[in-house]
Amino acid sequence: MTTWNLQGMQRHLLICNGSTCMGAGAEEVTLAIRDEITKNNLDEMIHTSRTRCNGRCKDKCVVISYPEGKWYSVKNEQVGRDIVTGQVEDQHMIYNMTQNGLAQATPTFTKGISKTKVLKRKEKSSATKKAILFVGHGSRVEAGNDEVREFIERTTYLIDPAILVETCFLEFASPNIEDGIELCVEKGAEEIHVIPIMLLHAGHSKMHIPAEIEHAREQFPGITFTYGQTIGIHAGIFEILLERLKEIGFDPYQKHEDTAILLVGRGGSDLEANGDFYKISRLLWEKLDVPWVESAFMGVATPTVDEGIERCVKFGAKKIIMLPYFLFTGILMKRMYKMRDNYQVTYPEVDIQIANYFGYHPKLQHVLVERAEQAMNGTSTGMQDLENFRKYAEEHGYEHHHHHH
After folding, report:
1. SS3 string of 85-142?
2. Checking DSSP bridges between strand 191-196 and strand 164-169, what pairing results, if any?
3. What proportions of the chain, in percent to the nearest 5, are helix, strand and coil?
4. 116: Cβ–Cβ under 8 A, 6 or more apart, which residues?
5. Contact between residue 121 and residue 128 where contact means Cβ atoms under 8 Å apart
């Protein structure tokens, strides 16, 4: 770790690099401030540090200058440069440190999140305001992210109107989890129930989302957080899979002597999740009258989709239905269609079809609402995931990252 010689330091600039500020240009502001320091030969006198969220998300980007104790809302790079040279206008100052604590400098600014007053707000409130924060994985294909948002919008009719419902993403899309939590707090939530929109219980649900929740608990000690479990092995998913097979003309109640179902999942390094996927394949096979229901993965785990198709062909299948085990569209669905076209050339004697992914199925809505209700009534296994993560972090350490690209 770098050790700076700070003996000549006269000012310390703390530049918020929380996700909200970063999304509003904090990286550019940071670089501009450091550039201005260098241009004016102030490197030995002004030290800069990147920080996490400072609780003034609506004033993004936030820069704090010590020892004078002034908090600034930096809307562009020039304001950052002016802070360095001392030419910043007072209208950009949010707070000023006094002997009695922070004083509001410019009441025209919108009030941000007050983390220290959450408990007082709870005492004054006659009823605790609850929020459900659904967490999607996020996709590089924006259509997939839009499907998640639309799906949750369609699901709200199943949820008590008094409960705030928000959607966020683990990575690749906005808002990320930190932003989602901050939004819930800004809207007055005193209980936040975080529900993963994920099929299998793996690294994201075991480690990454709990890490975000634990980070939020430090930022908002007056807020109550609970955590829901993933969809997992649930009776509702088999209803969805059967429905998707019906949509392409497959009758699940008839015998299909030469047909193989290839259940295709994302795949990962979590052995428990991969094992659950195999269980689902087996349970699906027991519900159908087909010789084969095979498992395959798009990445990381084996067998690969190539190997799964080859296996079905060797068994003697004349028809193969690729059944996606995905919630929404994305890169993998696009890739699967390209793969199917190639397989049709390689195996022209075999009819290869692709069923639809889960998508806007009503049963999926009910399953997720069930997971939310479990989190709120204390019966969710997700709380054990939080405890497991805390123990892991205590024993091995864990550096908090924002999964947001």
Report:
1. HCCCCHHHEEEEEECCEEEECCCCCCCCCCHHHHHHHHHHCCCCCEEEEEEECCCCCH
2. unpaired
3. 45, 20, 35
4. 222
5. no
Please give the sequence-ordered ranges of beta strands (E in DSSP) within 183-285, or none if there are none.
191-196, 224-227, 259-265
Reduced to 3 states, what is the DSSP secondary structure of residue 295? strand
At residue 19, the pLDDT reads 65
Residue pair 363/235 in contact (Cβ under 8 Å)? The answer is no
Q: Assess whether pLDDT exceeds 60 at residue 124.
A: no
pTM of the model: 0.69
Query: CB–CB of 214/390 below 8 Å?
Result: yes
Q: Which of 51, 216, 138 is nearest to 403 (CA)?
A: 138
8-state DSSP, 60 = P
| Distance, CA of 12 to CA of 35 (rounded, Å) | 15
The predicted-structure confidence for 24-56, as pLDDT tens digits, reads as follows 788 889 999 999 999 999 988 999 988 877 777
**Facing residues of 295 across strands?**
263
Q: Please tell me the distance from the alpha carbon of residue 320 to that of residue 352, in angstroms, as a whole number.
A: 5
Can you count the helices (H) and strands (E) in the chain?
14, 14
Which residues, in sequence order, are bridge partners of residue 63?
Answer: 15, 72
